[in-house]
Amino acid sequence: xxxxxxxxxxxxxxxxxxxxxxxxxxxxxxxxxxxxxxxxxxxxxxxxxxxxxxxxxxxxxxxxxxxxxxxxxxxxxxxxxxxxxxxxxxxxxxxxxxxxxxxxxxxxxxxxxxxxxxxxxxxxxxxxxxxxxxxxxxxxxxxxxxxxxxxxxxxxxxxxxxxxxxxxxxxxxxxxxxxxxxxxxxxxxxxxxxxxxx
Length: 198
Description:
Radius of gyration: 21 Å
Mean pLDDT: 78
Number of strands: 0
Low-confidence stretches: 73-90
Number of helices: 9
Largest sheet: none
């Protein structure tokens, strides 16, 4: 039996096998997208092991099941390892939804500084972060960066400000800090939108 010297080719072959129920053009598009993603990731992180890059993409069976579900062939294809329809549920959320939730949590808290505002702002931020983390539109590194910059860092800054007594009544310094965090969150959302997978 022949041993493989090219794990990328083996990975793409496995995806192609699992996605055999897809139309040929859609299957070729899926393989081209995966190959491009692997190439870009290896260029961005030359020190990363190829096994790590392939592991971030996920199991070929899951990728194929997601593609089949998106193509409307979920019933004809093999069920996803996590249960029937699991990938389809994750892909139903438009990529704009988590980005808007993360970004709008800040203005919501600024416009309604009394009790319901911060509570709803935190709920928006947490829900947006969860939707971002479970989305199929970004790689793991992009998800982690997005959550850190758009959810964790602003939360730490606001908590620190409130605990140190600066709080909402501090006037101009608080307004400038809020605007800086809003700019960071908006910039992060714009970057995530630009690098998303179709």
